[in-house]
Amino acid sequence: MTAIAIADVLPELSRRFSGQLLRSVDAEYDEARRVHNGLIDKRPAVIARCRGVADIGEAIRFARRHGLEIAVRGGGHNVAGRSTVEGGLMIDLSPMRRVVIDPDGRVGVADGGATWADFDRATQEHGLATTGGVVSSTGVGGLTLGGGYGWLQGRHGLSVDNLLAVEIVTAEGHALTASEEENADLFWAVRGGGGNFGVVASFHFRLHPVGPAVVGGLVAHPLENAGEVLRFYREFTASLPDALTVAAGMLHAPDGSGAKLAAVLACHCGPVEEGQAAVQPIKEFGSPAMDAMGPIPYAALNSMLDAGFPKGALNYWKSSFLSGLSDGAIDRMVECFARCPTPLGGIILDHYHGASTQVDERATAFPHRSTGYNMLVAAQWLDPAEVDGSIAWARESYAAMKPFLAAGRYVNYLDRDDSGAQVAAAYGPNYDRLRQVKTKYDPENVFHMNHNIRPRS
Fold first, then answer.
1. Interval 310-327: pLDDT, tens
2. Total Cβ atoms within 10 A of residue 213
3. Are 27 and 33 in contact, with CB atoms under 8 Å apart?
4. What is the pLDDT of residues 11-50, one digit of tens each?
5. Is the pTM value of this prediction over 0.90?
6. Count of CB atoms within 10 A of residue 25's CB?
């Protein structure tokens, strides 16, 4: 639809919309259209900044009447840029950031535009938390709908494992509650099936006693010791208490020097004394160049990596679960990272264990329930002149790792050139059932600006 045509029909939405409607002529438009990944440069015809469920429904119905593609933005972190759209309508939930806590019932309700920083701030006032990512500016919605790996997953499972209910607006613009008791098929699907089924206006989570202090942080070694560090990581993660979640990676020094490091990152969410004992082997291994691991407020730990993923940096990711962490896989990763051309790039290993793996693969739409590792090759840079070299490094590194990859993919790490078989691999054995739910709730595939699950024809 042209700009003139949008101007002609927008008043019909304005009369019923309580939020803010932005077009390219508006002063706030350029800032509002930008998402976390600076490589994404799309210009929606309309940005509908919603204030509540009614606004979401009106925006969906308006877009459908006028043939506009719909994208849904919560935190805007999706690396593939699926939360925005060229020439369509962006449903922007960022004004909807309320978090309400029932400390006695241990339930937290987060609006669809809330970030994990918002959620942690509210829950930690009561010494409570739920699993929620490792970068606090990430949106609650996007992370949860894709599964939700985080520092508490060993003891408390993934974000989806703590979801009690959602309020969701369907492709017809109707608000529904989805839970184990109501619309249970839809509730199953949103726990890992992404934004394929509607716009989630609020999330109800089970909360757990956590903090205010946990034990965690980062211990880093020079790159020349990376092979030994990752072998130690493999042995250490072979037997972990559920309260301890440990990641590893090859990153660059945070001081801007460009020095390449191998790091072990951890969070122990139990008693501080227990946590200090549990992480002691990490602190004692080798001769670290940096040791920043110890008691720390949980909210601070959950924002520890924020500076390493700044808004506006250009990003391109390739990711897959690994079939194992063999010596060959470790050596190949080290070789690849040594060639990383940008001081914001890295290769990261997430470890799945404990409660997150004690759920049947078909119990929620998120199917990846085996103990093991997910690898992320994260190319990230600031200079637009480095686009070709940075993307090439990520693709070449991923190709070099192919002999060590498993079939599964984590949908939240898929980039914009991942489609077809890669998307199906993210949903695994649940893909066919997800298509059935999609056909029931969105038969015309209105919500397709995502890692799409196509309805049955």
1. 999 999 999 999 999 999
2. 16
3. no
4. 989 999 999 999 999 999 999 999 999 999 999 999 999 9
5. yes
6. 8
